[in-house]
Amino acid sequence: MELIRLEDVHKTYHLGEVEVPVLHGISLSIHRGEMVALMGASGSGKTTLMNILGCLDHATSGSYWLDGREMSSLKPNERALARSEKIGFVFQNFNLLARTTALQNVLMPLDYSPRWNASGEGRRLALTLLERVGLAERVHHEPSQMSGGQQQRVAIGRALVNRPALVLADEPTGNLDSRTSIEILRMFQQLNAEGITVVLVTHDPQVAAYAHRTIHIVDGLVERETVSQPEAISASGSVWSVSEDSSLSARPSADGPHPSPLPVGEGTLIGDLPMGEGTLIAARPPAAVEPAAARNAAAVPVIEKFYGEPSAASSGVRSRLSLPATWRTALGAIARNKMRSGLSALGVIIAVAAVIAMTEIGQGSKAVLQKDIAGMGANLLMIFSGSATTGGVNQGAGSMLTLTPQDAEEIARQCPAVRGVAPTVRARAQIVYRNQNCVPEQITGTTPAFLVVRDWQNMSKGEMFSERDVRNGAKVCVIGTTIEEKLFQGVSPVGKEIRVNNVTFRVVGVLGRKGANMMGMDQDNVLLAPWTTIKCRVSGSALGATNQSASAASTTTSTEDTVNTLSDLYPTPLSLYPSHTATETADTPQPVRFANVDQIMAKAVSETKIKRAISQIQDLLRERHRIRPGREDDFNIHDMTEMSNMMSSMTNSMSTLLLAVAMISLVVGGVGIMNIMLVSVTERTREIGLRMAVGARSHHILRQFLVEAVVLCVVGGSMGVLLGRATSILVRWKVHWPTQASLTMIVAAVAVSAGVGVVFGFYPAWKASRLDPIEALRYE
After folding, report:
1. Residue-wise pLDDT tens digits, 172-210
2. What letters, b where the CB count within 10 A reaches 16 and e where it falls short, cover 145-171?
3. Cβ neighbours for 631, distance < 8 A, ≥ 6 positions apart
4. Do 458 and 512 touch, CB atoms closer than 8 A?
5. How far is the C-alpha of 419 from the C-alpha of 285, rounded, in Å?
6. pTM over 0.70
């Protein structure tokens, strides 16, 4: 039965514009179970013919059938699949992967086999083969730890692991000494005796003498074919021949002894003979004597014997990884090149660390700003009096004095979108306690609802004054922690008395610490008291016709205290009616229309109801102040939304800028990955060619290099996340800048790094998958 048939095969190489013909019409056939030698001088075309037989190359013209299938018109991936299923290669220079164990080298073809895998039964098969070729004790040795003969044995095991129908050996003894060459050739004869078709490519007649048939190739043509009795060589160097009566006759070698004939039965195997003095290379008739059908029938149990179960020692070796073949190959390549892999991932590590650190610093700054805005009062609405215009000059907000405490009460009662309301009166004065004094940034008269409006419910000491204190104008107050530290210096201020503008106040509580606001003002440098007390006793104004929040230092100057000087061109005329003295004013007080407040602070129920709260307050105040439709309001309402949006926009812009800079670093890291992967493709060209020779298709190579790039980027991204978090913590600890971790950004950084691996690793992977296996194997 024909396994190989070639009809008029030509092969011409194109070197630029020069055509170099190598094969000039080869026609031959090889039967299943034969051991054939392709013999010729260097340049005769025998290696090119072997590449065509092994589906590594295709003919320029002509037809090639392998196991009944025409191979000349197949695509590269289809030829690779045929190599994986039917062909095993044994190369002259072994072509073993460096820094890879013997077992892993033998298992390599199974990574691309559709019938086998590199674990389970396939792994047991590889261990059996290594044991059969005498390497059971060197399963985990690397090529650098083995001799040339042992490396060639590993290559033979690799060629046989996918149970091929055809084994191609290209100058299998060219790099070996004579004794090791005999061992390797003896092994090929044993494989052939067990039913495997073997084709030896050689220029040495002594090697060709081991084959059943020798095809002589000269200048790209088959010159002649010779059928010979395969020789058997003893360990002592004597040459044995098989005679027609199935006995062995000895022919002395140049130096060897003259042993006597040894009878051998039909089909006796070398594996059944003792491996001592006089052990034979081969002891079976040539292919021409034994019919092909008989050989095939006898080979079946023999092959099963050769691929039997491994010994107990070999079967104890277990797989270290149960990953898919592509992942296992990619991870193995990364592990074998630790320095290169580390340098490849370094750019991504730095870039992702920069992204994480900058993002956390930006998020921290944004959180601080939001906290400052919330510290001023979440959902805070500030209602100011309107502005008066005198002589065409706008006097500014608060000059009309139109807000009253009753307005605050009605807002709290009639506006459902408002959670709390507090009228406020401002003053500025000195605070004295014993021999200590200070001037706080804020002296505010208000109600207990002020703490609700400003989200300041937590008291450090004591308690807030009550509504009853507001109604009675009680001289009580609460102070901030800054005033406590300045005046009391570690002594509890609760129950102590302080003087504000020579008015004695009793401290009933200390506010919780709030810190500086977004404008840098210390919010803890504050004194709160009932607004009635501040207005009537500290500010010193009682009538609505005056600015009742002015400083108490403002007094009315009598005409007796004025001096008319020559610089007054228009002296103030004397009043027609005498003014009331202080005594008369106290005895006959004038009726007060209403007592105004400087500001009303309100808090909306939620951020989503701020606009509704503003609308309700506006409608209520226009009604209370009797403002006709079409007339301007005599009050102004401001909320923190505008300020919050502005600050959020600023922080978002800064965060986006920092993120853009970090993303540029990530792109640079991706370019570094692509550069290293391109260098890796060039460096590993022979490895890629070898993998293709044993059955790897283009998608296998593409996936392998893509996985390498993605793994490098993901590992680099993960390490970058750790480095970025460490940098963020260090900045917060050493520089005291606010930072805030973002799980979303961490996940995004790792995902982006994986995307970078795919994007920048695709071209090197694609380039590797497009390599021609012949050119790759010849690459130096």
Report:
1. 888 888 888 888 888 888 888 888 899 999 988 888 889
2. ebebbbbbbbbbbbbbbbbbbbbbbbb
3. none
4. yes
5. 107
6. no
